[in-house]
Fold this protein.
Amino acid sequence: MHGADGTGRAVPHKKLRGAQVLEFFGQFPASVVAMEACGGAHFCGREIGRLGHDVRLIPPADVKPFVKRQNSDAADAEAICEAALRPTMRFVPVKSEETQDAAMVFRVHELLIRRWTQAIRTWLPQSCSIARDSRRASGGNLQ
């Protein structure tokens, strides 16, 4: 966790894990909390938002230019903090559980269609070849 006050000055940062995150943010008055957008960020964003904070998710591609040194959690947190302070930064809205569920159903549906198409495209040439060979073997008199 990397923080900054209203002027952009860094405040003490802390390494948090799992349940510590909600305990930590529960101790503070409502403030802006910025995170890099990913699958888990939407869950965390919803939970932190329920504590009264304004959660802002930043696309990973928009955070990358702000990383100053080797990739680490601390460097990423600092880059996210710096990116969030930019007035022109665009944010991703936190997805509701219903939206995430609908997206998952859509992805599974798309996957099933791709697999079905793949299976048909594998099976069809083989079945046509078998039918053609059967016609030749029977002299073309298949009934």
User: Anything to note?
Assistant: The beta strands are 3-4, 10-11, 32-36, 54-58. The chain has a mean pLDDT of 82. Residues 3-84 form one domain.
